[in-house]
C-alpha cells in the first residue's frame, strides 16, 4: 500500500501538534500568560488525539467490525441505571442545592449508557439506548430548570416569559418587548402549552418543560442523521451520547427561548437533507427553512453560513451528491429575504447597527474578564469542551485515514465502498461532516470564540447553537473507532474518559451555576424564590425609578414594568449617586460579584454611600435603599 493516501493524516497530526505548541508558547513569550493558560484545554486534545490515532492506526479491521464482540444483557445495565437515577431524584428532593455527589451519579449514568450502547444486545437495542439517553438529558436539564424557581440563563428568559404571559392575559401577540415582535412562534407555542397544563403551572415552567422535551427529541434526530450517514446503530447512539455530554446542548436544553428551538429545527433540516431527495423531502426542506426564519429571524444568517460551509466542504471532497445543493441555498436566501423585508424590520435594523458599530470601531467589545482575572478557573470549566474536542479530532483523523486507505475505490464509486472491503469509508458525507466540524470548532469552543467575539463585536457564539450536530457526529465517530480498534483495553479507557467527560459536562459553571465544582467570577443562572418574592414586595411598595444589577433590572423591568436602570460600575465610589434608590442582591453578593455595567465584588461595593440612605427593605437576600 502506498504511503501517500495516509499523508493527510500525518500532515494534520503535525499541524495540530505544532498549533498546540504555538498556541501555548507564543502568548507566554509575548507576555500574556493568561492566554497561554487558557489555551491548555485546546492544546492537550490537539496533541493527545494524533497520538491515540497513531497508537490505534495499526488496526486494519473493517468499518463493519468496529464494535466490541462482548455482549451483555441490556437489562443488567438498565436495572443499575434506574436504581441510580431513582437515588439521584431522591437527592434532588432532599437537598436545596445539587451536591457534588449528584454530578458523580450522573457521570455513572453516562458510563452505564455507554456500556449499554457498546455491549448491549437485543433487537430493541437502539430504542432502549435512546430511552436511557433521553432520561439522562432530562434529569440534567430538569434538575436545574424545574428544581430552581426561575432559571434566567443569559437573562433573555425574563423578556420571553413576559411575552408568553402577555399572550395568555390578552389573547394577542402584540409584544411588550418590541425587539422580539417579529418572532413569536415560540411564545405562542409556550402559551398554548401553558393553557393545556392549566393555571397550576407557571408560564416559564411550561417553557422549561417544552424546551427539555424538544432537546430530548433532538437526540433521536442526531441518531437518525448519523444512521443516514452510516447505517450502524452503535455509531448513531454514540453520536447521541456525545451530544448529551456536550455542555452547549445541555445549556440550550435549559435555555427555553426561541433561538434554542431553532437549533432543533436545524437538526431536522439536516436529517431531511441527508434523506433521499424526493418531492416530499424537498417540500419538507422548504418548510423547515421557513420555520427557522419565522421562529428566530436573527438565526438564519448563522444557519446560512453553516450550510454554505457544508457546500464548500463537499466541493473540496468532490462529493457527487451533495447534502447542500443550490436549491437549498436558494430557498434559504429567498425565505430570509422575504421575511426580513415584510416582517422583521427591527431585526434587520439591529443587525445593521451591529455591523456598523463593528466596522466603525464603536463596538464596546473587550476581552472577557474571567480570561484575564482567573484563567485557571476558566480552563477548569472548559474541561468538558476539551474532551469533546478530543473525540472530534479523533473522528476527523480516523475519517481521513479511512478515506486514504480506500481513496482509489471511493473516488470511482463512493457509494459502493461498504464495510468489509478493506476498511474504506462507507459514507462519502461523513468526511464532509468532520471537515465542517473542524472548521466550526474555533466558533463553537470557548476561548478562541470569546476572543473572536471581543475582536469582531458580534455574537460569534451563536454558531454554538447550530454546530453541535457536527461536533456530536464527528465526536461520536471518533469514540466509535476508538472502541472498535483497541479491544478490551480501549473499551475500559473509553468508559473512564466518557464518565469523566460526563462529570465535567454537568458540573461546570456553564451548566451548573447553582453549585459548580469550580466557580467562575460571574452570576448565578437562576433566581431564588426569596429573591423573586423580595422583587415583588419592592415593586408593590415603590413606584419610582431605582438602580440595580443587570439581572434584577431585566426581571423587574420586563415582568413588572418597573423603572429600573443598570448601575454604572465605572463611576467607582460614586456608582450609586445617580440613583434615587438602589436595590442590592445581598444573597448573590455573598457568593458572586454582582453584574452591574461590569462585575463588582463585595469588597469593591461602596457601602458607605448605601449606609447614608434609609434601608427601607431587607429580606436577607435583597436589600432596598432609598
UniProtKB/TrEMBL annotation:
Transmembrane feature ranges: 12-30, 36-53, 74-94, 100-118, 130-148, 234-252, 290-312, 324-342, 382-400, 430-451, 463-480, 487-506
Keywords per UniProt: Membrane, Transmembrane, Transmembrane helix
Highest taxon above the source species: Archaea
Protein name as catalogued: Glycosyltransferase RgtA/B/C/D-like domain-containing protein
